[in-house]
Each structure stands twice: as C-alpha cells, then as structure tokens.
Queue: 2 jobs
Job 1
Amino acid sequence: MRPTNMMMKKHTIGIGADYRQDLRRLIASALQNRQECSAVEGLELCRSTLGEEEFLAAVDVLLDGHLTMGPQTEAFEAEWSAWLPTDFSLMVNSGSSANLLMLSALTFPGNPDGLRPGDEVILPAVGWSTSLFPISQTGCVPVLVDVDRDTLNLSPEKVEEAVTDKTRAILAIHLLGNPCDIPALQTIADRHGLYLLEDCCEAHGASIEGRRVGTFGALAAFSFYYSHHMTSIEGGMVCGQDRSTWRDGLVSQRAHGWIRGRSDRDQWAKNYPDIDPRWLFATTGYNVRPTDLNAAIGRAQLRKLSGFIEQRVAIRRRLLDRLRPYESWLAVQRELPGHSHAAFGLSLMVRPDAPFGRKKLQAFLEARRIETRPIVGGNFARQPVMGHVPHRCSGLLANADLVHCNGLMIGNHADLTAAQEDHLIACIAEFMESHALRAA
Ligand SMILES: Cc1ncc(COP(=O)(O)O)c(C=O)c1O
C-alpha cells in the first residue's frame, strides 16, 4: 500500500518516543566526548553550556516544522516574564536588537511623550557599542558620562552634572553583572522627568535588595548571546512593567511595523478596511524576530539559569578572596551594599602606581592560556567610530580612561573547574611575586 499524506505525517510524529531516547544517548556521548577533548587548564572567555535538553529541544522544533517565531517564542516570553518577574517580555534576535527596540519605542513619532531628534540620552562612557548606537540611530544624541571608580557603573553625581534641558533619558548599563545605583539614578530621573532604561545584557539575576535588575526602568534589555548567563545562541529580550504603554508598539517594530500580534489589531483592521490586515503597517519597524529554534533552546536554558548564576557568583567570590593579597596593585569591581552582583566576568584594574602595566599582565596571562579582553568597550569616547557619531562627553571621563588603559577582563562561566581557578590564581601569584622581587 502506498502511504497517504496522512500516514506519512503520522509516521513523522510516530518516531517520537524512540528517537528521543536514541538521540539523548547519542547527544550524551557526543557531549562527553567534547568535554574530554576540551579539558584544559587554560581559561576561555566563554564556553558552551548547552546540554542534552537544549539539543533535544532544538531537534524537536526542527522536526515539528514550525521554525520561525511562534509558540516556542511565546512560551519563552511568558516564562521569562514569570522569572524576572515583569509585566511583559518580547523576544528578539539579540541584545543589540533589544536595545534598538527600546530606543525605537521611545522615539517613535506616534508616541506623544516620546523623544525627538536632538534629544539627549545619558549613558556610561564604559559600555558596549550597541548600547550606544541605537541612541544615535534613532536620532538622539548620546551623552557619555563618567563611571564610578569602584563599581565601574554610571556615577550618579556625574549624571546629575550632565543633565541639560535637552536630556530625556538615562540608559543604565549594569556592567559585568554589577547592579547600578538605581535608587540614585531613579531619583535623578524623577527630578528631571527622564525615562530610565536598563541595559541588563550582562546582568541576568543581579539584584538590588532582592529585586532583580530589569524591573526598575521603563524598559529593559537582556542578551542571550552564548557567553552570557544563559543562551539561546543568539537572542535577546525587551521587558517592561507597563504593557499597555509599550507592548503593541514593540510588537510592530520587531516585525516590519505590521499589526500582527498586537492586542489592538482588530481595531486597526476595522479602521482600514481597504487594507489586508495581514499587511497593514502601523509603525516603522525592523525585522529583529527570533526563531522558535532559539526560543526552545532559551527555554531549556532558563530552567537552569538560577543554578548557572549561583555557580558564577560562587566562583567570583572565591576568586576575589584569593586575589585579596594583591589588591594594592590590582583593583576589582565592587558592588554597593544590598546589591547582588551576577558575576558575568571578572574585571581587574592595574592600579596606576603598580610597577607594571596592564599590557604586561595581559601578555603574561595570555601566554599561559588565560584569555583576556578589555572591560566591555573601554572608554567608548575613544573608539574611532565616535568620530562619525554626533555625541557629547560630559566632563573629563577620567575613570573611564582608567578602565580603558588599565582594565582587563577574564571570563567566568558556570562550569569553570577548580583546576582552572587554581591555574588563574597561580599565574597571577607568579606574576605579582616576580614584580615584588624586582621592586624590592
Ligand atoms: C552591555 C551590553 N549591551 C548589549 C550587548 C549586545 O548583546 P548581543 O551580543 O546579544 O547583541 C552586549 C553584548 O554582550 C553587552 O555586553
């Protein structure tokens, strides 16, 4: 008998239970193999945390055939909103896109309280490229403000000094997982009638007095790039506490500017009967949609997220304890009282009076297979691209310069081994002792 379409479909679905067991075995053995091959004493900036569950979830999506944004994305958004917790979340294809949508929502001409071309948005001088670029891409002017020397986050005093009558928003970046001084920034925002936005791309699970970052600002952005606390490979989330103000606009801007997925789509359709509602465009927009493949992986990772964060935090605490003997030459990032650091990475700042420079320490570590990188983008005002981006620097940015010239970052990840921790500390001890001897 020749199989009918119906039977073929049944056959595809019918492989369910068996294929999952076989696949799980195959994936487990492949992962084991990979772990053995990569058991090194060096330290990478990032490492895959994808396990059997993520691989199976991805295969399920591929077999299911619903590949583009769909039910997995919706479920991930609901689960992320419950985890944070927040009123609504919208998944996008990266943290950069999440930042872009935040600024686009704020500057959309249809938003009566929105920002207008030439309005200023304050952000820290130490930050990431795609925290800053959306500000100018949406017609506003980024104002770079110095960071606090200990927290490496926006200095509230410097923010206050930077406010002018053109200032409309503050973009707080929780650098390397360290929560910003949100209470102080919120006070400034309230006093001057500014929007407060949060870039939490490095700060999943960081909190202030038990409340997670990403729940303070009007809108917040997260990244699920693979070096972050959890990953969907590429991916991001825009979150907000006030669905009625923001969600529909963000939904349109995520996907072409059309009305699909908006709560008010029926009203739009009714108002424009001559336009096919499937191709009815309400706002400007992009295509920054995720795929269900990313969302399914994200969902499996979210179930492990609290564990990942705990592990990263414990590793950072141990490393900070063991680095204490060297603190007269090496400064680490400090969190404020009541703030809980999410330990994205470990920052080391060579103090200006140390008998060696950052580059020397970096070369020493790299030669011993410890990967390093600058602290995020360094002082972003110094990046050549800023020659093409209209912006303003408020004051001297002296601490950002220190980060730029003296700072380096070492990766942290949930399954860093005790041997890797020991290797890092042994290398730093060796380096320090050689200089102490020479300095004596
Ligand atoms: C502070 C910050 N904002 C935004 C981003 C952009 O996120 P993505 O790489 O997912 O685009 C990053 C990237 O790591 C980041 O560190």
Job 2
Amino acid sequence: MTSPAQGVPRHGELVTARVRVLRVPVPAGDDPLASPEAWAVHGSVLVDRAVELDGLGYDDLALDARTILTTMVEEQEHKRVLRYVAVADGGTDGSAAPSPESVVGRAVVGLPMRSNPHLALAHVRVLPGWRRQGVGTALWEACLADLRAAGRTVVVGDADLGGAEPPPGPDALVPPTGSGRFPRSDPGAQFALRQGFVLEQVDRHSHLPVPVPAGRLDPLRAGARAAASGYRVHVWCDEVPEERLAGLATLYTRMSTDAPNAGLEIEEDPWDADRVRDKHRAMLAGGSRFVLAAAEHEESDTLAGFSCVSFSEDRPEVVFQDDTLVLREHRGHRLGLLVKVAVLDELSRANPAARRVHTWNAQENDHMLAINVALGFAPAGVQSEWQLHL
Ligand SMILES: CC(C)(COP(=O)(O)OP(=O)(O)OC[C@H]1O[C@@H](n2cnc3c(N)ncnc32)[C@H](O)[C@@H]1OP(=O)(O)O)[C@@H](O)C(=O)NCCC(=O)NCCS
C-alpha cells in the first residue's frame, strides 16, 4: 500500500493526499465482470451513480459495468478508451484487490484512432465527499500524461448540471456561440477553468416521457409524411441489412461535421460499412439494443437521413436518443421529424417498458430543438463543452 508517508509511488500510480490513481485493468476470462480484477469497473459504476444522484437527482445516465467493459474492449481500433480510478488509502492491504467501495473518483480518456489524431476526450468525476482534496487533479494528471504520450494537443471535456440554465449575470458563462449559459460557480466549471479549459458550447439536456400520446404524435406524423413525398422510411431493430450499411456509414460520417460543433476542433470522422456493423455488434455485445429509422430518397435510392435510439436490456425504461441527421441536400422535407416519429412508433412496440428518452442538443441547433420541442421533449439540464490546447 502506498501512502504519502511511505513515499514513492509504484510505476503507473499517482499518489495524492489520501488516494492513489491507477489505470483500470481490463478484466478478462469467461466471466470478466465476476473476476477479481473487475473491482475498478464496479467501483467506477458506484462513483458514477453517486455523482449523478448528487448532481441530477437520478442515475439514468450512469453506465453499467457491462457497458463500461464493452467500451474498453470493443472498437478500440477506432476509439481507444483508457480508464483511471482514484482509490482511497485503506482500500487494500497490498495483497488483495481493492474493493469497489474504495474507489472515490474515476476518469475516462477517449483517443480517436483513425481520424482526429490531435484530439482526446477526457472526463473526471469525484465522489462529493472527496472533493477539494486534489483527487480530481490527480486523476486529471494521470489522463494528461497518457494523452500527451499519445501525441494529443487538443482536449475536449464536459460538465453537467441538472435543472435550468443560470439567469444572465456575473455567474453565467456564455460560450462564443452566444447560445446558452453555464454557471461559473459549478464545481465542474471551476475545475475546468483551473486546468485552463475554455467554454466552447452549451447543450440543452431534455427528457421526453414515452410513450408519446397519440394526440400529439399523430398530427406530427401526418404533417411529416405529407411534406416528405418521394421518401420512404425504413425501421430496423438491433440489425441493419448489409446492403444499407454503406449508406448509413455516409450518414454517420456527416454526423461528425454537420451537427454544430461550435469552436470544438473536431474533424471529420470517416465511417464505412464495416465500422457501422462493428458498432452495432458492439452495442448488442454490451447488452444494448437499438431502434433506427432511415429515410430513403426513392429516386436516387440513397439514405437521406436517420435517427437512432438505444437502451440497455437491463434497464429498458431509460432510452437514449443517439444520432439524428438529415443530409444537407435533403433538408426542408421534414425528414428529421419523420424519422424521429418512426423511431418512437417502433420503440413503443420493441420496448414497451420504455419510460423516458434523454437527448442533448447544442443550444444553437434551432432546427433540432424545434423538432424535439414539438415531440414533447422538455429541458432537464445543461451540459457544457470545454476545450484545452496543450
Ligand atoms: C470537477 C470535479 C472532478 C473536481 O474534483 P475535485 O477532486 O474536487 O478537484 P480538486 O480538489 O483537484 O480541485 C482542483 C481545483 O479545481 C478548482 N475547484 C474544484 N472544485 C471547485 C469548487 N467547488 N469551487 C471552486 N473551485 C473548485 C479549485 O481551483 C481546486 O483547487 P483548490 O481546491 O486548491 O482551490 C468534481 O467536482 C466532480 O466530480 N464534479 C462532477 C463531475 C464534473 O463536473 N466533471 C467535469 C470535469 S471534466
């Protein structure tokens, strides 16, 4: 067991006042999450749940252990994911694995591998009772060492807040987009400012209770269908036909450039059919299911737009709105609304246990927000996007 009194940390560990930081081992074997080295994954889940209950009042957004493991082993050729935990002194006597309960903070770094060689995504969380003692800084320094070693020069991170945006005034930080506000006094904002990050964008986090009443959905569906003549909707659950993967890859590629990125230095992330297939397989392997609707332009036989939601088999009441995109050349035909309604229609059949959908949209993304408001999404929180140049 390392402690400041005992001096030098072992290789790969960073020690602060009462904690040490280490890389999360990837549990292996037939039943990896039951293996002794899974303690750090389970500890990360506990931290996420506690931080979200404290900050948001619910833990819908906390990843479960299976999903965390999936992000560490699947698709690493596209996005390498490194995880860290801060373990309280006393969490182990040095001979046994620490207990999940001894994890007091966690950090995640994502490194795009096939594009964006300059970029790293980073996120740090510390249990409320362990804050302002340097734990977040120790986790951040561990991230920083690895992302510098990987040659990354731009770091993007985010901080969340439940409830409403702050009113305009001295505590309200406004990004250069001019849209949205985030409180300067928020611990995540204070921490990010301290590390030199700059606020670039503010997103609205919204909730939609589902199923959506027919009285709201029916006229929206009828209006969208009337405006979208010449387009046909396909809906797929958990698997997309092989012949459609390439068309979907074009849409995923355009997600990286066509959704508003404000000043975040995110370059095009190219997709092909294999990557789309791998992504969908990885979702299923991690216990997630998805419903995807795509609008086909009948004359050209191309996929012009799509929308996708996903949920965990273990917690089907919580649904996440993933990507939605309409190619620029096909906008103005209400295809965004059309595919979103199609997803909600299918969701009520494929997952009758669904109770709420979470979505995040840039505050300057007027068109997407208008569609979501029409569907019944209501503001639930604020997310801030930060950027640091190394
Ligand atoms: C942000 C967070 C990770 C900070 O963890 P932490 O262990 O408290 O961080 P540290 O103790 O290392 O704080 C480092 C510095 O950040 C600043 N800071 C952090 N929290 C602060 C707060 N509540 N008020 C003012 N300054 C704060 C201070 O400058 C602090 O140094 P100091 O204590 O010497 O004054 C933690 O509050 C948290 O988990 N928040 C929720 C998740 C989140 O928002 N993450 C976003 C960051 S990517």
